[in-house]
Amino acid sequence: MSRILPSTLEVVRQQLNQFLQNAAARSDDWVVLTSLLEADGSPNSGALNRIVMLLTNIQRENGRGGLPGAPLEVAVDLGFIANFPAAQYGDGLMALSLVIACLHQQPLLTPASHPGLDLDVEKVSLELLNQSPADLNHLFGMLGAKYQPAVFYRLRLLPYWAADRQGRPLPVRGGGQDPPALRR
Predict the structure, then answer these.
(1) What percent of the chain has pLDDT over 90?
(2) Global pTM value
């Protein structure tokens, strides 16, 4: 069973949390990987006064995914929502600003820079997504929530291998001798 998605999202969450803790230390995490609401529609109390990191979409990347022996590569859209009450609105904006700064400074994740990444991940990148007011309206409606300050990113190139490939080491690459299906 592949844990590539949750493990990669946890690496991103940890990176952001460390960045925010360095800027403004607090006793609990700044960033949580969770939903804004419980399944019954009630507020998620564990998400209050935090940046909520949540998945909003998964789609296929156009790449080597159609080649025999190549992984299916997916892109994941992420939302970072400042879930702070009115009295701490400024704190939420500060935290959201730090999320943007962190992801701007480190938009590329590799196993060398982020040892917690799954070994099947060669690299992933994070890019800022533009959202129109109509897009935001639809997105928050889909989430069942009222609008809150948020920023959205696309995490690109998560590789999913066929079931018989899971857990096996990657072939050695280098010297220009890689099989064509493995060349980027």
Answers:
(1) 65
(2) 0.83
**What is the structure's pLDDT at 28?**
96
* CA 172 to the chain's CA centroid: 28
Taken in order 53, 20, 83, 108, the sign of the CA dihedral is negative
Give burial (CB, 10 Å; 0-12/13-18/19+) of 123.
Answer: middle
- Please give the structure tokens belonging to residue 83: 């879930």
CA distance 70 to 125: 19
Please determine, for residue 127, whether its predicted confidence score (pLDDT) is greater than 80: yes
Nearest residue to 108 via CA among 125, 129, 127: 125
Domain 4-163 has CATH 2.60.40: no
Domain ranges of the chain: 4-163
Q: What φ, ψ does residue 53 adopt, rounded to 5°?
A: -100, 120
What CA–CA distance (Å, rounded) separates 113 from 97? 23
Angle formed by the axes of helices 89-105 and 4-23, nearest 10°? 120
